[in-house]
Each structure stands twice: as structure tokens, then as C-alpha cells.
Request: fold
Amino acid sequence: MPLYHTEDQAMLAETVTGFIADEGAIKTQLRRLRDSGDSAGYDPALWAQFAEMGLTGILVSEADGGLGLGHVEAGIVLREIGRNLTPSPFLSTAVVGATALGAASDDLKGRYLPGVIAGKQVLALAIDEGAKHRPERIGLRAERAGNGFRLTGAKQFVVHGATADALIVAARTAGSDSDDDGVTLFAVPRDAAGIGHNAVRLVDSAIASHVTFDGVDVDGGAVIGEVDGGRALLNQVLAAGRIGAAAELTGVGIGAFARTTDYLKTRKQFGKLIGEFQALQHRAAHLYAELEIADAAVIKAQQLLDGGSSQADLMVSVAKAKASRATNLAVREGVQMHGGVGMTDEFDIGLFMKRDRALAEFLGDASYHADRVATLSGY
Amino acid sequence: MSDLDTFRAEIRAWLDANCPAEMRKPVQDEDDVCWGGRNFVFKSEAQKVWLERCVAKGYTVPDWPQAYGGAGLTAPQAKIWREELARIGARPPLSSFGIWMLGPALLKFGTEDQKVHYLGHIARGEIRWCQGYSEPGSGSDLVSLQTFGEDRGDHWVVNGQKIWTSYADKADWIFCLVRTDKANKYQGISFLLFDMTTPGVTTKPIKLISGNSPFCETFFDNVVVPKHQIVGELNRGWDVAKYLLGHEREMISGAGGGERLNAIGAVVQRHGGIDNPVLRAELAQFDIDALAYAAMGEKFLDEAKVGRAHPAQPNMMKYAGTELNKRRHELLMAAGGSTALEWDSPATRGGAAARGWLRTKANSIEGGTSEVMLNVVAKRILDLPGA
Reply:
């Protein structure tokens, strides 16, 4: 399969690019929400528009009422979200949540998927238990109780957790924290008895929760997939979230780069445009190369994932790490090349820097994925 | 099965039956490469057989038209051919500047007679070509070149000197930039082809820091070149030269496949192990960049085949690919420790690692320096002012 978009994918990209540029722009979404002190972290009206466009069900199978498309298509949406820094529950809901629920019972699907597809419900992933992403260790306990389970423990960095209708929770049902086996995924209602939310605003203005589970009872129907055998499904969910975050990162990088090259073409010092200075030209050209290469890694990983390739897992980590590094360079060079105005809140370039930092951390930073690439490669 | 699946099955079966086992191992060094040409000595019977079988099917240049010695494969078919070669680790049957550089230029600018004649020789590995571009005073500023061809009616008489001519001492013919109008800088250069055995052509190998001599100085003393051996129009050779440079940069970038795209961490682990966490981290960072660059190479070729790639993209690829390759060899030297320092011991195949490492330092100089590549990207892709 060639490494570029098919005609259908190119059409989707054209539609989505216009839609998100119009409706998801920095001024009308990110800045408006941030400056009004909103507590949801996204605009429900925009989420409903995503549903009208059919985007909320992009990864949901046609049998379950969705579009049944793949990670290439989801990535098209995420890239535009990234380019416009649009606050959206798309990644946590339509990518991560939908991938998890794809393996759920019909009953559980029925509880959430119609609402997700309709743009009325939101899902959040509760995986991290410390400040760094370490899904190999899962300590939150789920013990059998009556017909269901009782959850005890804590999660953090649960983006959209405080407003989500359900949390996708990775819990330990057997064994010790670092075991591969004994992991089970649950869909837990946000307001189940015993759940505590401490919602905090992050550097990029997203709202994430520290969630405590103090003997939270869920019925057996809340289990997604197999009891004790959830590791494979969790890996699948994480792969979807990681390649989604990588796609969004490439959008952030492209957006920051476009602002930076525009600035190089308009700002004058020493009587000439600063883009005439070779020192800046070479740094911009190097950055262009890095962003192009990251973009290629992302579409390669998306295609491998959609094709069910055994190489997909490795390439997803390559893509997440490469996109993190390239976009990080884009935002750092962006602020530096903007000079003093790059430090002001009025200019958008700083917003890109903040978003890059949060996305890079989400589901494993570049170091995490470099370590994973080494491990998966056998060293 | 789709047509492409059928094609893949056919290629797979053909390779099974026709690619000798010896040719399914990576090349050890440049000595192992099949370059073809009048004076080429095959290193093994397998190498000879592998070339002959591929020539018979047009597989040395799979996507060239059959009339010119190719197999006439479509872009998706050619990709399958490359994938199937990679799958069994098969070597390219033939490597040559004719295939990578002159061929594409002839396909675009050559006359029908030139295509049939020269492309056929290239496809069959009969003529080995070298490239006469750089001169002692014309490196990055190539267009200032001085080698002059004086018009004598039905032929030119060429005088001057080229430098960094790769394998000029082994090549049969040269494609050469010659000034044919001293008054016109860009539109005063012609693209000429001539036999290296023509009286007045001499070569002198240049010993490099690697101890090897892949490059030569090439001297022209009243060399007679018939008028029909020009590619493109008189004084418009710069157009051909630039087009060819795009392909040269693509070749040096390694985008087309081969070891330059591979990760190395697992290889280092198998040969001696990695007992230092910092080295492991550096290898992992490298592998990420290498695997991402491999995807870029694949994407670039896919896009180029359907005309979607930016025409200046090979400059970016050349920059990124050569800088990556230099890093690869720095890491391999570090991982190899003191063994990798040995210069001529049999155990290191004559210091192959060290010589290979030093050779890569030319990657970001030959065919346009990294700095020139960045200039071109800034100007032609980013449209930065005054670039």
C-alpha cells in the first residue's frame, strides 16, 4: 500500500481540514474556553458538531453504528485538531474509548457507544498511577465482590476524567503489580459511589483528574473483554492512543512551523527580513526535514496498525517518539525564532509549546518509547 | 487474489528458483558489489549467474521500459519487487551510476537512438559509467566549471580537469559537464558522453582518509567528442545536470532501500552485546530515527512515482539520509570498541568498520553538501526570502 492517502482519505482530509479550521480555531475554542475559566476542558457544542460530521464514530465498526474506518482516518482528524490546538475529547473518546469498547459485550457497548456516536457522551482513559506512564505496572485493585468487582486505588492524568460519562480503567484482578497477567479493563461510570475526582488544569489548559477509587462497586457487566486477560486488549488500546497522540503531535508541529516560517518572512531587523539570514534558514530547513520524517513514520505506523501487522507495535513507538522529538524541536525553535513576542501570551506560538509538552507526556514520552523500541528489538 | 497478489506470488516463485543462496547475504564491502562493465571481474559464479538471470528478465532496471532493457514494471509492481528482494535479503544484481543517475536523465532528455543504445548497455551491465561534474575550483559552486569543449564542426575538443570522479579509473564511459560557451554561465554548459579510452583521457586515484581511493582526478587533454554524443540541447546541459543531481541525491540519501535504512541496535546486541545503558539509549534513539527515515524513504518513492513529491524533496532526503548514515557509523565504531580501530587485521577484514566509518564522512559532501541541501530546501520548499 503506498504511503500516502487514498482518494477517500484525501477527501476526508479536505473536509476535516476546513471544518476544524472554521469551528475549532484557537481564538474561538482554546482561548475562549481558557479565558472563561471553563471547567469541562472542551466545548460540548463542538463535540456535537463532530458527531454531525460522523467523526465521533470513525473507529466504531459499522455493525455498532460507526464508520468502521481506521487509524489513518482517525489520524487525519487528530492532525487537524493538533494544527488548531482544538480542545476536544476526540482522542480519549473516539480513539481510545472506542477501541476499548470495540471488545466489550453488546450490553456494555449499548450503554456508551450510541451516546459517543451521537456526540452526547465522552470517555476517559484511567491508566497512569504515577507522574510517568508505566502501564507495565498496574496496582489499582479490583477484587471480586458479589456479582461484580470492588475497585480500590488511584489513577492520575485522566484527561476529561471529571466530565466523562465513563472511565476506561485498567485494574489488577490477580497477581502482583508488574505481572502481565491478571489485568482487567472496566468501564466505570464517572459518578459511581466511592469515586473521588480532583480535577486540575494542565499547562495546555486541558482538565485532567486525579481519581481515587475507594471501594467502588461495579457489576460484572462493566468488564471489558476477559477477566485477568486484559493485557492484550490494553496494549491494543494504548497503541490506538499512542498513534493518535503522534498524529496530533504532527499537527501541532506543522502549526507551529507554519507560524514560524510566516514570521521569518515578515519580521525585519538590520534592514532585512530575518528569514534572509542563513543561520535561521538552515535551522528552518532542518526542522522541515524532521517534521516530514515524523509524518512519514506516523502514516507508516497507522497503516501497519490498520493492516494488523506484527510490526505495528514497534512502529507505533517509533512514531510516537519521533513525532515527540520533531514537534518539540518545532515549538522550541518556534518560540526562539519569534524572539520576544514568542514569550507573550498574545502570540499563539507559546500555546503550541504547551500543547506539545502535554501530548508528548500522554501515553509515554520519547524516552519511554525509545526504551520500548530497544526492548521490542531485543536489546 | 488481486493482480498485485498474483504478481507477488510470481516474483516470489521466480526469486526462489533463481536467486542463488550466496546472493541472499548482505554485501560485506564495496568489493562485494556487482558494478558490471568491460573490465569487471565477477567475485563468484553466483554473482555472475544472478546478474545474467536478472538481465534476461529486465530486473536490473525493473521499472524501465522493456525496449530499453527493463522489465516495464508499474510503480506498485516495482515496489513489490523491492519488497520481495528485501524479504529474502537478496542483493541488487547490479549497482551502477548508469542505473541511478545517467539512466533517468537519458529517459527524460535522450533521443530514441541514445535510449536504445546507452540504456541497453546499462541494463545489461556492459558499460560502467562515471560522472564528470566537480572541478578543483568548482565544488559547491558547480556552475562555475571551466572544462572547455571547443567546437570543431562535427566534434568538440575537450580540455580541462575534473575531480572527485567516483571510480573513474574503473569506468568505461563518462557523462561529463563541459563548458561550450564561455560568455554564458548557466546556459553555456553541455552534457557530453564519451569513452574513457579516448586518447587524452587520464585518471589518477586520490587516496582518502579511509586509505582507499574510490575517487579520482580526471584529466582531459585534447579529447575528441563527436557531436552526436551530447544529451539534450547545446548549452542546455545544466538542465540535464540538475535533473540528474536530483537522482544522485536520491541515491546518496539511501531512500531506495538497503542497509542505510536499517536499525542497528539488535545487530550490535548480537555482536558483542550492549552492556552500557547510555550506549543502549543512543542506539535506541538512532533506531527510531533510522526506522522513521526508512518510512520517509518509502513515502518519498511512493509519492515521486505519482508526481506528488516536491521536486526539491531529494535535497531534504539527501541531507537527512547522509547525516543519519554518519551517525550510524559513529555508533558502530563506539560499539565496536578497540576492535573497530584495527586498520588491516584479517579479523576485521582489513579494518572494514574503520574504513567504512571514514568513507561516510564524504556522504554529506559528495553530490552537494549538507549546507547546500539546506540552502535549497530553504529556497525552493520553504520559500524563505533572499535564499
